[in-house]
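Please complete every field before forwarding. Incomplete forms are returned to the sender.

SECTION A: IDENTIFIERS
Entry label: holo-187
Bound molecule: copper (II) ion
Molecule representation: SMILES string

SECTION B: INPUTS
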Amino acid sequence: MHFYAIRSDLTGFQHIHPTMANDGTWRANLSSLASGSWRMFTSFTPDNGTGKGTALVLSRTVTVPGTETKTALPAAAKSAEIDGYTVTVKGEPMAGMTHPMTVTVTKNGKPVTDLQPYLDTYAHLTAFHESDTAFAHLHPTTEVNGDHGGPELSFNAELPTSGNWRLFLQFQTGGKLHTAALTLKVG
Ligand SMILES: [Cu+2]
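SECTION C: PREDICTED COMPLEX
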């Protein structure tokens, strides 16, 4: 099971992995949440019953009490920096269509080729729509071959609605997980 939390202004992204107790209850610890309205998503694939084999996403809104300070959505950009890495997105995704999209990871202007598999893939791309917090989670089609991922990762981007999406790209190097964020405009 994957669990995602995002505040209504698309800040505060968290991606965690709950574990199941014997009674069927799933638990995980969220980091502290800033005041405001949060959307919580869980994605899972049932192993039996009517939904067997179907990838499902459920979500609900949770309010964290207190005064809410909203952060404006950063302008659409082709690249983002995180922990000394630069992530660049190439492609012109269109709503409701599958479009090729390439993500390139560099460090100090040089291609990065030591991405490690994290949960069996070189990257996890989680996207939330600006206005209705629609959700998408994508993995690169790039095949995993040890700790040698990068610099290019290919995606079949499929985002259901046009407008601004906030993308969170997670990748791992040297045992450390990095999360880059950028705004992508979908036509
Ligand atoms: Cu993933």
